[in-house]
Write a structure and sequence with these properties.
alpha/beta; Purple Acid Phosphatase, chain A, domain 2; six-stranded mixed beta sheet; 5 helices
Amino acid sequence: MISRLKFRVGLLVFILLALTVAYAYYVEPRIVVLEKVDIPISGLAQELDGFTIGVMADLHVETTRISTIRSAVQRLVGLEPDVTVIVGDFAEEATSLSEIDKALEPLSPVYGVPGNWDRWTEAANFQDLTGVEMLVNRGVSLRAGIWLCGIDTALLGHPSIDDAVVGAPEGSTVILLAHEPDVALLVRPEHDISLQISGHSHGGQIRLPFVGSVLLPPLGAEYPMGLAQAPTHWVYTTRGVGMSHIPARFLCPPEVTLITLVRPGD
């Protein structure tokens, strides 16, 4: 009787584990979740109240299905963000990026920064993305009052926050794109950055109940997911669209984000 009970329990555990693994590999990676977050920005001009930013990251073409990337794009298209940003890790192998360009066509304008995988795979040449304006240690003015800037990947590139903020009009709201979220600890008060948007961590990609993220990458552990307050500014870290190393997600679905800038107290 006891042996039969042990067998049944063992079989049940095996079935549950098999279903969990199947879900992590074949189901959750395709469930793209839209996250919406309002971020209060001190000194935000009245006319910029409600300015929206569509956010994507970590596409990881090759590990991630192009259909998942298209699904992520479609989640944003209907919301018509004022601008869309992609904070690094476009591709993992030397490959043509034409598929990404085609998938991103419905979104405009689109700005981006390179991630560590993009620097590992120079042959992929993220600069070939015709639909994405790359901000590598530089910035651009969006409307009157927003300076959108970006830096190179901190792990394998040559990032310069100093260069990125050069040219920002006095009194503008400065938004920094940085692939690795823990770059936030390098931001100084004189950079006058209000918001940093990052990816890289994938939110841990595999999360366990009561434990959280199983493994976080270098420069992705301090601000691994969601909205956080760094010493000088807000940091938003997206879970990203794709996967790396292990083509699975558990309790950490792919994400696209709609950030809305708001005036404090409004």
